[in-house]
Fold this sequence. Notes:
By secondary structure, the protein is mainly beta. 10% of the residues lie in helices and 31% in strands.
Amino acid sequence: MAEEKTMIKLCGLWKTEGKEGEVFFSGKLSYSSRILVFKNKYKRSEKDPDLIIYLAEHKPKEKAAEKTDSNDVFDEIG
Length: 78
């Protein structure tokens, strides 16, 4: 009987374009970490990898508090 191999899904990846036009893929592993996959810009031979994977801290974007009263905005400004 052949041994069955189990695959574990880590995350989905999205194609993204960086500020300088470079294409890379990114996805969220958990609430606190993300994975980034870049083309290896330093590939010199066929033995070098095509892609490099980085693990980075995920910093969620702060959502602006919804304002229901315009006076709240002025109270925060001073």
